[in-house]
Structures are given as C-alpha cells and as structure tokens.
Amino acid sequence: MSASERAIELLTAAAEAAHDKKAENVLAFDVSEQLAITDAFLVASASNDRQVRAIVDAVEEKLRVDFDAKPVRREGAREGRWVLLDYLEIVIHVQHDEERSFYSLERLWRDCPIIKLPSAVPGTGSASGPAE
User: Fold this and answer.
1) Containing H/E element for 57?
2) Which residues partner with 42 through β-bridges?
3) Average pLDDT, rounded, for the chain
4) What does the pLDDT read at residue 120?
5) Which ranges does the record mark as transmembrane (predicted)?
6) Phi, psi for 97 (deg, rounded to 5)
7) Beta partners for 95?
C-alpha cells in the first residue's frame, strides 16, 4: 500500500508553503509500508528558531485554508527546534539545522520511497534511498 492521494495533496501543499518561507532540504517519504499510523512524512529544516516557527505557521495556515485540515497534535512549537505537526495522513517535521543533522530522519527512513515533490520545491529527492 502506498500513500493516499489526499496524503500526497497535503504533502505537496505543505512542501510549497514551507519552501515559500525558505525551508531547506524539503523531503517527503512514503512510510505507509512501515507505519500503520500515517502514510507519509515531510521533513524540512531552517537555520534558526524563528524561521522554524514561521515555516510551521505557514504550513498550518495553508493546510487549514486550502484543505480545512488542522493538526491533531502539535509538539515542540514553543522551543522552535523541532516542531511536529500530525495530520493523521501525514506527519510534518520542521527541524532546526542542528536537530536535523543530529537526528538524521533521512537515514532512519532511507528504506522508504521518496515522494517526488513539485519542481518548485528545490532540494527534494536528495536523500539517499529508493526513489518512487
């Protein structure tokens, strides 16, 4: 089973919103084969706490306005180092560069297919792992 059409739509919109706020290294993984709790992960990073928060705010607004979607869980927003937004179909991780490097989610999920994002979101598809 692969990520649902809705999950792909949410991921794409979230990736575009993150990119608009200068998110770096935006990657999407289809984790539906590995996890029963979600279809896909979106991972993005920023160089400072303020930018992490701005990316999270932009993603939440885009998904709320365009899809009437609200996260069922939001963690880490106060610190601005690693914010997790859980939309059930997708989970979005926005990390400070240091956390991104240390926790290396790309390495953890490298066996999962990468979901290709629009070419308007540069930096996609650069993780090692199978391409979709």
Assistant:
1) helix 49-67
2) 28, 92
3) 90
4) 67
5) none
6) -50, -40
7) 45, 82
CB 89 within 8 A of CB 69: no
Cα separation values, 30 from 90, 111, 113, 123, Å: 9, 10, 5, 17
Amino acid at 52: V
Residue 37 CB burial class (10 angstroms; 0-12, 13-18, ≥19): exposed
User: How many CB atoms lie under 10 A from the CB of residue 47?
Assistant: 12
Answer left, alpha or beta for residue 82, where phi above 0 means left and psi between -120 and 50 means alpha: beta
Which residue in the block uniquely carries the two structure tokens 């920023």? Answer: 46
Tokens linked to 10: 């949410």
Burial 82-100 (b: 16+ CB within 10 A, else e): bbbbebebbbbbbbbeebb
Residue in 58, 132, 131 with CA at minimum distance from that of residue 94: 58
In total, the chain counts a number of residues equal to 132
Model confidence at 118: pLDDT above 90: no
The token duo for 30 is 């289809």
Torsion of CA 49, 106, 128, 5, to 10 degrees: -100
